[in-house]
Amino acid sequence: xxxxxxxxxxxxxxxxxxxxxxxxxxxxxxxxxxxxxxxxxxxxxxxxxxxxxxxxxxxxxxxxxxxxxxxxxxxxxxxxxxxxxxxxxxxxxxxxxxxxxxxxxxxxxxxxxxxxxxxxxxxxxxxxxxxxxxxxxxxxxxxxxxxxxxxxxxxxxxxxxxxxxxxxxxxxxxxxxxxxxxxxxxxxxxxxxxxxxxxxxxxxxxxxxxxxxxxxxxxxxxxxxxxxxxxxxxxxxxxxxxxxxxxxxxxxxxxxxxxxxxxxxxxxxxxxxxxxxxxxxxxxxxxxxxxxxxxxxx
Length: 298
Known about the structure:
By secondary structure, this protein is α+β, with helices and mostly antiparallel strands. The protein has helices at 8-59, 91-94, 102-106, 113-122, 279-286, and strands spanning 76-77, 80-81, 138-142, 154-158, 162-165, 199-203, 231-232, 260-265, 270-274. The strands form three sheets. The chain has a five-stranded mixed beta sheet. The protein is globular.
């Protein structure tokens, strides 16, 4: 008996069907992966917020925003990192003992305070990165910090994807209206609107055209004190990441997620905020005591 094989037309039909099935499957797989990355990002923010809580339990106040500007190295006293208001390094440096990075915080193995500071600045921590946007990133650059002096060295600067609320200030509160303020540390009792109504950290918006480079508002890195690398405005609506030759994104909050961004409140609860949030509501979230309660109805 003669065996009958597949005709060319039949093979083409089968290949077409397989192609259609694959085209349907790939977006679903990509979508499920993004859901997983978004949840991982949310978990990073929760872990950072829990570190803030642990800092408060240990010292009875939150980490400060450091400062008074970005020009400072981390502050040590005879090799021991100091606390606010004497600490010039930012909140990212101050929470290191509570995210299993105490060796970096203490500068174990370094011989001078400059070396300890450089160790902190150049050591990345996965918790500071959103997996949707990028892997942990360290970019080498010359030391441009001038206080208490310049090391004259080139070293890595570990980036970050999360910023504190907020850079906004008033004449009555020149150090900031949020929980993470310039040099001065706040307590639970200073968050008059309530821990569950006040923004602590959120994803920061950046220009994706310059990932892997030093770009304004993504160069000093996670240890920086009082700077738009580590603090953002809540008086400006959050917007998605973008591509542009030169724009810096106006120091807004934002993300690489579709439709919105992850934030964490002072009580360590995480929320996904859509970009459609009203400007007024977002501003109120960043103010620790405007006496206006925020209701989450996303």
